[in-house]
Amino acid sequence: MPARTHPLSRDVTFDVPLAKWTSVRVGGSAEALVKPSHPDVLVQTLAIAKTEGLTVSILGGGANTLVGDAGVPGVTLKLQPAAEEIDGDEITLSAGAAITRLITLMKQQKLVGAEFLAGIPGTIGGATAMNAGTKNGECMRIVDAIELATADGLGWVTGLPFVYRHTAIPQGAVVTRVRFKLERGDLALSQQKMDIDLAYRKRTQPLDKPNFGSVFTNPPGDHAGRLIESVKLKGHRIGNAQISELHANWIVNLGGATAKDVVALMDLAQARVRDASGVTLTPEVKRIGVFE
């Protein structure tokens, strides 16, 4: 794959800076960035990577991803939006589609059930893999089936195990499409729930600065933000990365931050919280690439 002449040359570019593809706007370059033009191209890419022993990283929408400053070796996949399917109360979207597209189609089809995803950035594939959600719901509760690509081909699966902020996607598989099962219901109440949730986000989250959302998952019976604030780290800055002054479980890029800055803040928050309370905070953000 690293060679400049390759069977997938139409879908691959080399030495691509990735910071602009992530919501926190930090990180190095992809050795090879592949945007598959068709699911078959994705399967072929995975097969080549397997044969050549290349690492495969998935960028998704970059909303919950931290890219290492030294870049990402091997293959970085960025899936694109593709055809949509609507069948009664079922909506099927490609992994590369934005989460907001599900909300739009839900409204158009006069369905309810995915309100908790309104306002969450990123793609359908990322939301499914990390079982994205809020206190009001989680993605996998409304997923009926998932199409996966592997080096051997494409296939639909159901009943994948999931827990808080994690779905057990098989090793080496990539989500390509997701079928959601919604329902008929009170449309006015549905809109009211989304309006309340979006207003809350605007009041409590630093949406005006580059970020990747919640940094740590909430430990059972507590909140990561409360724990970080309790050890006086709210507003703490390392380099040009800062633990948000608005929400302590968010790290923002003040301009020119590096992945090293962000990791240093994450490590500091984990150490301070662990020392003070015995709680080990678990990162929600996914790291890809090489960190110096």
At a glance:
This protein has helices spanning 39-52, 99-108, 124-129, 187-204, 224-230, 259-277; strands at 12-17, 29-34, 56-58, 65-67, 72-77, 85-87, 90-94, 133-134, 137-138, 143-150, 153-157, 162-163, 166-167, 174-181, 211-214, 237-238, 241-243, 250-253, 286-288.
Q: SSE layout and pairings?
A:
Blueprint (H helix, E strand, L loop, with lengths): L11 E6 L11 E6 L4 H14 L3 E3 L6 E3 L4 E6 L7 E3 L2 E5 L4 H10 L15 H6 L3 E2 L2 E2 L4 E8 L2 E5 L4 E2 L2 E2 L6 E8 L5 H18 L6 E4 L9 H7 L6 E2 L2 E3 L6 E4 L5 H19 L8 E3 L4
Parallel strand pairs: 2-5, 3-5, 4-19
Antiparallel strand pairs: 1-2, 6-7, 7-14, 8-9, 10-11, 10-14, 12-13, 15-18, 16-17, 17-18
Q: What is the β-strand count?
A: 19
Average the pLDDT over all residues and give the rounded result: 95
Looking at the chains present, what oligomeric state does this protein adopt?
single chain
Distance between the first and last residues' Cα: 24 Å
**CATH architectural grouping of the largest domain:** 2-Layer Sandwich
Give the biggest sheet.
Answer: 5 strands, antiparallel
Features:
3 domains; 292 residues; Uridine Diphospho-n-acetylenolpyruvylglucosamine Reductase, domain 3; alpha+beta; 19 strands; Uridine Diphospho-n-acetylenolpyruvylglucosamine Reductase, domain 2; 4-stranded mixed sheet; Uridine Diphospho-n-acetylenolpyruvylglucosamine Reductase, domain 1; 26% strand; 6 helices
